[in-house]
Hints:
CATH architecture of the largest domain: Alpha-Beta Complex
Helix content: 25-40%
Radius of gyration: 23 Å
Order of helices and strands: HEHEEHEHEHEHHHEEEEHHHEEEEEEEE
CATH class of the largest domain: Alpha Beta
Distance between the termini: 38 Å
Number of domains: 2
Shape: globular
Amino acid sequence: MVDDIYPRFSQSEMAGRRRMIEEVMAEAGVSHLVAYGAERSGSAVPWLSEWPVTREAALLLTPGEEPHLLVQHYNHLPNARILASRCQVDWGGPSTIDRLVDLLATRLTAGQRVGVIGPLRFVDHQRLVDGVGDLTRLDSAYQRLRLVKSSEEIERLEVAARLSDSSVKAVRDQVEVGMDEHQVAAIAESAYLSEGGTNHIHYFAATPMGDPSQCVPAQLQSSRRLQEGDVLFCEISAAFWGYAGQVLRTFTVAADPTPLFVDLHRAADAAFDAILATVRPGAHAAELVEASAVIEEMGFTIYDDLVHGYGGGYLPPVLGSKSRPNLDVPDLTLEEGMALVVQPNVITHDERAGVQTGQLVVVTAEGYRSLHDVPRGMVRIA
């Protein structure tokens, strides 16, 4: 990352990305590309321009011409003009889509096609079709480009992982009996805000080990207060400029773990180790699922996804276990530079008790490298 008031990728990194997307366009027979995002969603816009989508943004790419970035709202323009990399930046006007149609009208010639990437609403998609003709969706091809990370992307993931570790360590060290989940979330976020991190997710669940009723962290915090004898498990991702770490841990609150939770976590550790032992370039996604069979052999199952790709979205392979399949196992082999979250959320079959463990790793020539350093294992806190 270049030393600047904002973190930036190098010019060679950004040029390489645009070359790759132009190759995708050429393969699809597309002459112009619209990368779209709204409400902080739509990763192609920042990947190609370095502008993190705020309210709405659309990037118009035509090979041989300067990319044109349209942003909403008007008061976001000054910041976008500082951040956007080698783009013309303008306000999208009363309607970003109408402005796109007008811009494309000046570029399109007979027989040319327009490609799109991003979460276009139906009404916006239809407006573009009415204005410029049928569109070619390039989301799948774009997703394939994001599977293998560049060295600069891995550097940014390393920063995000460090911030995520700080968050988990703060929860481990600062949580007290009597706090509610909102207070736990405040501890988690406070650990990285001063270093430029932002919240991607922080999921928590707490339940009595003696009479558990939750097996997976919840996406929204409750007002339930932590009690002696609880188990608290979490999934925390601090983000750094479009890239997030992900670390999952389980704690017992002011008490030692009960035999059930010892067994659950032992199964989770065994599955985590078995899956990582299979991670290497050339390994098929099915091998990772097969490695998780230890969970069923020990009498348990899972609820959350077992493994998923990461960095630039929730990426393939997204895998479940044999007892809790997800989508069909993709015909995908691992490559050096892929980022994966391995996260066996081992639970009881009645879905009343569970644990979380796991973290983000990168596939290397030798196997894998973890980007996190927060110690593994179930820890007693408070």
